[in-house]
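Final report, closing paragraph on structural work. Over the funding period we assembled a curated collection of sequence-structure pairs, and we close with a single example.
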Amino acid sequence: MRVAVMGAGAVGCYYGGMLARAGHEVTLIARQPHVEAIRRDGLIMDTLSFKESVALQASTEAHAVRGAQLVLFCVKSSDTEAAGAAIAPHLDADALVLSLQNGVDNAQRLQALLRQRVVPAVVYVATEMAGPGRVKHNGRGDLVLGPAARRDDVLQAFAEAGVAVQISENVIGALWAKLIVNCAYNALSAIAMLPYGQLVQGQGIRDVMHGAVQECLAVAKALGVTLPGDMWQSVQDIALAMPQQSSSTAQDLARGRRTEIDHLNGYVVRQGEMHGVATPVNRTLWALVKLLEGRQRS
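Its predicted structure, as stored:
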């Protein structure tokens, strides 16, 4: 299968690398330093089960999506419209686009720009970029995809790559479940600059996390979203499963980059305002991360 990864950061590099390792024709579209390193040394993958250089193509140009049957769309939520407009003229008519992004509305926003089918995906992987062209895998790696991804070629490709995939009729509920986990961990991990295992040991932190989760649940209920299972238990399990992982928000701040907080806690705040649900904990976490972003810019 011909695969293009638009926005090959940690998530895009991991899944693109796994597909390339399984023999699929993969092109990563990334920033110049990553592209140069990958062209020179291949993609260096340091995972829980192997460490090796994976050969694949890399480009800085959006037109590199041309010819791809499957496009993994992995850009930051704030870049969805710009990146979507950039690839729109170059996509094959029958390409399938998977939105492997944080937040719950990216697929909808992207679909408004593309004629091709866009499928929402929930990403459960702990990864980070360890340097140009180097991706570090810290845990999990499974995907939950919307029903439109139920295509034999797509499912076979992921199976060959060793990526566990679940097709869900309630992918919106699964996206919200991931959003709630992010709202509980991302801002706090970024503010404290601590991995999850240490973070949850902080005095009063579990109460703050519980408050954020309860607000998210109230907003989800107001929107009519059906959530799977016990969300508070799921949130607590993350620290046990990935104690060394730092949030993507923390990684962005550490690199001086804009975070996705507007599409995480900020999204919950906006939806709460629209539906009459108070979200003081999420508002505080959002505001503190925005403050840190502003300090970096200045």
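The mean pLDDT is 96. The radius of gyration is 18 Å. We thank the funder for supporting this effort.
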